From TrEMBL:
Alphabetized SUPFAM superfamilies for the sequence: Oligoxyloglucan reducing end-specific cellobiohydrolase, Sialidases
This protein's UniProt keywords: Signal
Keyword Signal among record annotations: yes
Protein name (database record): Glycosyl hydrolase
TM regions (residue ranges): none
Organism domain of life: Bacteria
Signal peptide residue numbers: 1-21
Length: 766
């Protein structure tokens, strides 16, 4: 992940700038290449490339083994260390305010949702990578339940009433069904018999294993509670899911599983409420399947080759089933699948291989909700549909990109909608909505930055929720509307008023970076936020990444594509800093703004190269390739020792090989280090400003710490949810804290004082 400077200014006041359409319109008016579907594909490609998933056939297995090893290490920690050691503390967003926007506060992407039968106040919510949450007050407050699960991506939920709410049975399927290899985060199926307080894995063993990395749906057979069906996708291999996708069946509450449908990735599975012999399933590229023997055998009831297929059954009439496809079709059967009728075509308003969902009113089988970019309500089985919110903008009542719609089974006028922005509820049949996001911490951060004077003030770029900022009162708020938000930086105060400037990046456009700038400390000292687009004059198109490489120091901002360009912080034109590279720039080092020495800067590329210049300021020398000794994997981050830019660390994208390299001579030679780092990709690295022997690495399963200059590492995860995806790390000197940006869990902070490792090395007895 690209490094960010410890910033000297933070945003305290935000006004939305409608510079882009987050869901439908182009980022730049008239630029038709920037439809949302293209952005979804670029995000999927970024996710795969950063982890090298196109060439990692055992990524999910490596991750699973790394989590086992992590827990073995943590189990050896001494009780004394566990008592006195600092713990990670959540810093939000919980959630983020959108200033005057109609839909109110937003959180993050929702994948699954369940409500207790007979009590709408008790709800469970599953997020993309922010964990499993529960409310007992209808969403006024939430409690995270997934701190000890091996995945924070919750793709499916099944809630079964117990004798009391405390005895409810909850089944949880993990993994992110959105697209691509996000299912790499999955860890199978869990069961709780105490309403989510504790969980036990239910994935079988040996030849009877549940071989799904993403679980999209869970169904329980009426009258036979130990018989369940689970639908999902297999492990990602070489960029696509394996032949283990499909539907699995158990008759012993998940101790043993048999695959009963092997024709493709399955999105939905349902049992008939009244007849346990009948079950329905949706399989991508195949259509709707039906079973009449309790899910043992299946036959195609309605064929369809769309990339994504959803189904819904009517509670009030078990013969009525709907199919909704990414091709825009809504089909219906009213006779249990004997015949089907086409109710609508063209019912997709965009990116329906990403966001697609349907539900049927429990009291009226002709009344349905469907969701794609926006949610729609129909009273004639989908033949005509009324949008329940406006298109993207400040008057929209629900954040778009809809992943879950649900009619209350207890109230005829209540319904819920889950989207990329969180959860919304209507109590009047969809006429008005209120957000239910207070207390949810689900933001998927690509990057964070800190105020050097007060690290409780933060900036961050988030998936589908633009760039945002945090005040010291723990209020996070929108800074500028950009769809996804990426890098956020602030120019250090160098005595020339450059510290007044802040920068942020968003979607590259026409193969050029998209950079915004604020010239008034981004509102820190009063006045409305004012961001404007930075000129691309002088830039050469090509190579700018989804998360564009950018850094700022000593009065200049640097951006990387196929080569590196430089512009004065207050400037309007870019100039080249040297020759083009062999592959595009992915990350920069975080240059130390202190001192007067020439500015040594490092750039890492997607092709595994590292380049350096001994002085990146005007008149400095060209870049030198210093890659000899590295393993050629994509560079994910670069960090230098504070006050000594000749000592540099590089993380690379690999599961099984060396993940961290160190040089003490500005890259003239490299030493592979990082013993103890887990078998997942290393996303971020940073060196303690107070102790150069203390090095931190952010990984897909949490933060790891070294106290011997990167030679060995141990988990640093106390207080942070297990298996947290850490994309960025920042350090503040006073107070001395480390801050982590999670892709799904928001921002987290931990104190670095006192340095307990002077007493306990990694928390183990010596």
């Amino acid at each position: 992940m690209p490094r960010t400077l410890l910033i000297s200014a933070l945003l305290l006041l935000a006004l939305p700038v409608l510079a882009s359409a987050q869901g439908q319109g182009p980022l730049i008016p008239g630029d038709k290449t920037f439809g949302e579907s293209l952005q979804q594909e670029k995000r999927r490609r970024w996710f795969n490339e950063v982890r090298n998933l196109e060439h990692e056939p055992d990524a999910a297995l490596y991750r699973s083994e790394a989590l086992v090893q992590q827990q073995e290490v943590l189990a050896r920690r001494t009780p004394q260390y566990l008592t006195v050691a600092p713990r990670w503390q959540s810093m939000g967003p919980s959630p983020m305010t959108m200033t005057g926007w109609t839909f109110g506060k937003v959180s993050g992407r929702i994948l699954s949702f369940a409500v207790r039968s007979g009590d709408d106040n008790i709800q469970y919510l599953g997020s993309a990578s922010g964990g499993l949450w529960k409310t007992v007050d209808g969403g006024d407050s939430w409690l995270r339940l997934s701190d000890e699960l091996d995945s924070q991506a919750i793709g499916a939920l099944l809630l079964v009433n117990g004798a009391t709410p405390a005895a409810d049975e909850l089944w949880v399927g993990t993994g992110d069904f959105a697209s691509g290899c996000y299912d790499y985060f999955g860890s199978g199926l869990y069961r709780s018999t105490d309403a989510g307080l504790t969980f036990q894995p239910r994935n079988g063993s040996g030849a009877n294993t549940l071989k799904l990395s993403t679980i999209n749906a869970i169904a329980r057979r009426p009258g036979q509670p130990q018989t369940l069906l689970v639908a999902g996708a297999g492990q990602c291999v070489n960029g696509s899911v394996t032949a283990t996708s499909g539907i699995y069946r158990t008759t012993d509450n998940g101790l043993n599983w048999t695959r009963v449908v092997s024709s493709g990735r399955s999105m939905d599975v349902r049992f008939d409420r009244n007849d346990g012999n009948i079950a329905w399933a949706a399989v991508n590229g195949v259509g709707v399947l039906k079973s009449t023997d309790g899910g043992v055998t299946w036959a195609t009831s309605r064929a369809n080759t769309s990339a994504k297929i959803r189904l819904a059954t009517a509670d009030s009439n078990s013969n009525i089933v709907y199919m909704y496809t990414s091709g825009g079709a809504i089909d219906k059967t009213s006779d249990g699948g004997a015949t089907w009728a086409s109710m609508a075509t063209g019912a997709c308003d965009g990116q329906c291989s990403y966001n697609l969902t349907i539900d049927v009113d429990p009291a009226n089988p002709s009344r349905i909700m469907v969701g794609a970019i926006r949610p729609y309500l129909s009273s004639d089985s989908g033949a005509t549909r009324t949008a329940m919110t406006t298109t993207w903008g400040s008057t929209q009542s629900v954040h778009q990109d809809i992943h879950h719609v649900y009619f209350s089974r207890n109230s005829s006028t209540r319904l819920w909608i889950g989207s990329d922005g969180g959860l919304w509820r209507s109590n009047d049949g969809g006429a008005t909505f209120t957000h239910r996001n207070d207390g949810l911490t689900l933001t998927q951060f690509y990057d964070i930055a800190l105020d050097r004077r007060d690290p409780d003030r933060m900036l961050g770029g988030a998936q589908d929720n633009s760039s945002l900022a945090r005040s010291t009162s723990n209020v996070w708020f929108l800074t500028r509307t950009t769809g996804d938000g990426f890098m956020n930086l602030s120019a250090p105060d160098d005595g020339a008023n450059n510290g007044r400037y802040t920068f942020q990046t968003s979607y590259p456009s026409s193969d050029l970076p998209n950079i915004s700038r604020s010239s008034n400390y981004a509102g820190l000292y009063g006045g409305a936020i004012s961001y404007s687009s930075v000129s691309t004059s002088g830039l050469v198109a090509g190579g700018y990444q989804w998360v564009t490489a950018m850094t700022v120091t000593k009065g200049y901002v640097f951006v990387g594509g196929n080569s590196v360009f430089r512009m004065p912080v207050t400037g309007s034109s870019w100039s080249s800093t040297g020759s083009a590279f062999a592959s595009p720039v992915a990350v920069f080092s975080d240059p130390d703004p202190s001192g007067t020495a020439p500015l040594r800067l490092y750039a890492g590329t997607t092709g595994g190269k590292v380049y350096t210049t001994s002085n990146a300021l005007p008149g400095g020398p060209d870049w030198t390739d210093i890659s000899a000794g590295l393993n050629g994997a994509r560079i994910t981050d670069i960090a230098t020792e504070h006050g000594n830019a000749s000592t540099v660390y590089v993380t690379v994208s690999t599961f099984t090989n060396t993940k961290l390299y160190k040089s003490t001579n500005a890259g003239a030679s490299w030493t592979p280090v990082g013993s103890g780092l887990p078998g997942v990709t290393a996303n971020s690295v940073i060196v303690d400003t107070a102790n150069p022997l203390r090095v931190f690495v952010g990984t897909d399963i949490g933060v790891y710490e070294s106290t011997d200059g990167g030679a060995t590492f141990a988990p640093m995860t106390l207080g942070m949810p297990r298996a947290s995806v850490v994309l960025d790390l920042e350090i503040a000197a006073n107070p001395h804290v480390l801050v982590a940006g999670l892709y799904g869990g928001g921002a987290w902070k931990i104190s670095l004082d006192p340095d307990l490792d002077t007493i306990f090395v990694d928390g183990f007895e010596q």
